[in-house]
Write a structure and sequence with these properties.
With 92 residues, this protein is mainly alpha-helical. It has a single domain, classed as Orthogonal Bundle (Rna Polymerase Sigma Factor, Chain: A), CATH 1.10.1740.10. It is 75% helix and 0% strand. The chain has helices spanning 3-27, 31-53, 59-73, 86-91. It is globular, with a radius of gyration of 14 Å.
Length: 92
């Protein structure tokens, strides 16, 4: 296996762990953690919403709605899925 693939895989694992930690902090109502998660994923969520809806003028509001769901439901996150899948589940 090429070393670059291993490095990428290792980075994904580190990112997944960082996301789990962020979600645990969000569940404890840490607003700074929510801000970090937002900065990390708002572009990705926005791109997904634009592809799904094709309504660019509404994307900012839908991004806010998506992250509000994350804030409200963070305590229900069990760590069984990667945090980066949250954007797609909550967006759809």
């Amino acid at each position: 296996m090429p070393q670059s693939v291993c490095e990428t895989t290792d980075q994904v694992a580190r990112d997944a762990e960082a996301d789990r930690q962020l979600l645990a902090r969000i569940a404890a109502r840490d607003a700074r953690a929510m801000e970090e998660l937002y900065v990390r994923y708002c572009g990705r969520v926005g791109a997904l919403l634009t592809r799904i809806t094709r309504r660019g003028e509404m994307v900012d509001e839908m991004i806010s709605d998506t992250f509000m769901v994350v804030w409200k439901q963070a305590r229900e996150f069990r760590g069984e899925a990667r945090a980066d899948s949250i954007d797609e589940r909550n967006t759809i």
